[in-house]
Write a structure and sequence with these properties.
The protein has 12 helices and 9 strands. The chain is an alpha/beta fold and 302 residues long. Bound molecules: zinc ion (ZN) (2 copies). The site of one zinc ion has 7 residues, from helix 12.
């Protein structure tokens, strides 16, 4: 006999150990959407006239994010959603995810902007990382992708830039910053504030566990790509992920409590902690904390 949903007696499709609930497909979808709406209302205040740029990689997180934002705001004519995809130039990887991303935006009828490292920086990520370098490929990719996203978002007049970070990503990042004693990064992770030149970052999925993002994509039959980026990921993040997952099994709710504690205290830390002055990069004009932005530094521009 299948286990029943605790809300309606249909067959359950998931057991949320942290809430103690067995829930059916309908109530699962409702639960995910409630969490996302709550996050948006409390942290990101979407308003009339907003242009929301959505970072769309084609993986499950960004696909669910775009689908949900379209579901929530698609009916509003005073809000525009635009998908942005960056083609980093990773042979054998990006082609597939790009195809999935295109499929989704055309199904939903959403404007889709695709830009490449090659066009922007004259080299693909493969070419950039084949050169002599001090940092891992993910550092290059992360910095350049962020910079390019912000640039495009500014170009189209977007005032929000939404990314698909889920609860697991957030808990890992918070824990990594603690382990590294990195207060600057902790503050940068805090709820967004208005900074001239930087498009406001929003992470509407931050209260949804990774497993549930994947399940949401599956039950809604969304086209998403499951291939892993061929570049090795940050080693520390993998260790922290395993550690948190082990804790979560023994102490359900750990991921939420890591985030809750952080959300409650970060504002106070930010008030007391001196923050870097912002200026404009003298090469590309992006807003940054030095005379040269991270992207220009990595590209060896001077
Ligand atoms: Zn139900
Ligand atoms: Zn620059």
């Amino acid at each position: 006999m299948p286990i029943k949903c605790m809300k309606c007696n249909r067959d359950a499709i998931i057991f949320q150990k942290y809430s103690g609930m067995h829930i059916c497909k309908r109530h699962f979808i409702e639960d995910v959407e409630r969490k996302v709406k709550l996050t948006i209302r409390k942290q990101y205040k979407i308003e009339k006239g907003d242009i929301i740029a959505v970072a769309l990689s084609g993986g499950k997180d960004s696909v669910v994010l775009l689908y949900l934002l379209h579901k929530i705001f698609g009916v509003r004519r005073d809000i525009e959603i635009v998908a942005l995809t960056i083609d980093e130039g990773i042979a054998g990887y990006r082609e597939e995810t790009l195809a999935k991303a295109r499929k989704l935006t055309s199904e939903l009828g959403i404007r889709h902007i695709v830009r490449s490292f090659k066009d922007e920086y004259d080299k693909t990520l493969d070419e950039l990382t084949a050169q002599e370098r001090k940092l891992g490929a993910c550092s290059y990719c992360g910095v350049l992708r962020k910079s390019l996203m912000n640039k495009i978002a500014n170009e189209i007049g977007a005032n929000k830039l939404a990314t698909g970070h889920n609860l697991d990503d957030e808990a890992q990042t918070i824990m990594m910053n603690h382990l590294g004693g990195d207060v600057d990064r902790m503050i940068r992770l805090s709820p967004p504030r208005e900074i001239e030149g930087l498009v406001l970052r929003a992470k509407p999925l931050r209260k949804v566990p990774e497993k549930e993002v994947a399940l949401y994509a599956i039950v809604n039959e969304l086209p998403f790509d499951m291939s892993e980026c061929p570049y090795a990921h940050e080693a520390l993040r993998g260790e922290v992920r395993d550690m948190i997952n082990e804790f979560e099994v023994r102490h359900p709710g750990t991921k939420y409590s890591i985030m809750r504690g952080f959300d409650k205290t970060v504002g106070l830390i930010a008030k007391e902690y001196p923050q870097a002055e912002l200026s404009k990069c003298r090469i590309c004009g992006e807003t940054c904390t030095a005379t040269l932005c991270q992207a220009c530094k990595l590209l060896g521009r001077s």
